[in-house]
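so ive been stuck on this for like two days lol. basically i have the seq below and the ligand is coenzyme A, smiles is in there too. i just want the complex predicted, nothing fancy, no docking runs or whatever. if the output looks off dont worry ill sanity check it later, just need somthing to start from for the group meeting slides
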Amino acid sequence: MAIRSFANKEPRMSELAYVDEMAVVIGDVDIDEDSSIWPMVVVRGDINSIRIGKRTSIQDGSVIHVNHVGEFNPAGNPVIIGDDVTVGHKALLHGCQIADRCLIGMGSIIMDGAFVESDIILGAGSLVPRNKVLHSGYLWLGNPVEKIRALTENELRFLRYSANYYVQLQRRYRLDKKS
Ligand SMILES: CC(C)(COP(=O)(O)OP(=O)(O)OC[C@H]1O[C@@H](n2cnc3c(N)ncnc32)[C@H](O)[C@@H]1OP(=O)(O)O)[C@@H](O)C(=O)NCCC(=O)NCCS
């Protein structure tokens, strides 16, 4: 496992979180309980902070990075991810915010300052441009992303199911490591 401090900031991880041996986590990063970081994920909180809430999974090959405070961006862009979020394989999350109970489709790109509100499905391979706001309760899809339709009751229930499925899976991995 490559967990490294940078500029005197050490990643902080709940004892109940799972970080795979092949993930890289650097700097000002918080990972809350029951969350999971899977192989080949990079979480690089070197020039701003990254917060990952509870029961959130960041799946294989995803990259999370931030934007610094500077002349061209006085506020900078941290990354803030809420609770019960499923981030599919090979997503790229850059300087963005994602609220609770979202599913971020495989291979999606979310750019600086974008805000994904709660209870959203973002279709696989979508691109969310800088500062775009995705309103709660909808399927969003495409490059650039568009609002497609309201989520069904079943899909809203699936968002919790998906998060919980990964909570159970990461527990199995943590137990496996100890044995
Ligand atoms: C978008 C999604 C939610 C399906 O929504 P849906 O309303 O059930 O859509 P359907 O499967 O009925 O497909 C409807 C149309 O959208 C197209 N479509 C489906 N997913 C698409 C995607 N990600 N990007 C572009 N088009 C897509 C289909 O080809 C179909 O096109 P057609 O009408 O021309 O044949 C799903 O395909 C998806 O991307 N889910 C994300 C899965 C994921 O990444 N999970 C994380 C893994 S852990």
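The chain has a mean pLDDT of 97. Residues 59, 86, 88, 103, 105-106, 121, 123-125, 139, 141 surround coenzyme A (CB under 6 Å).
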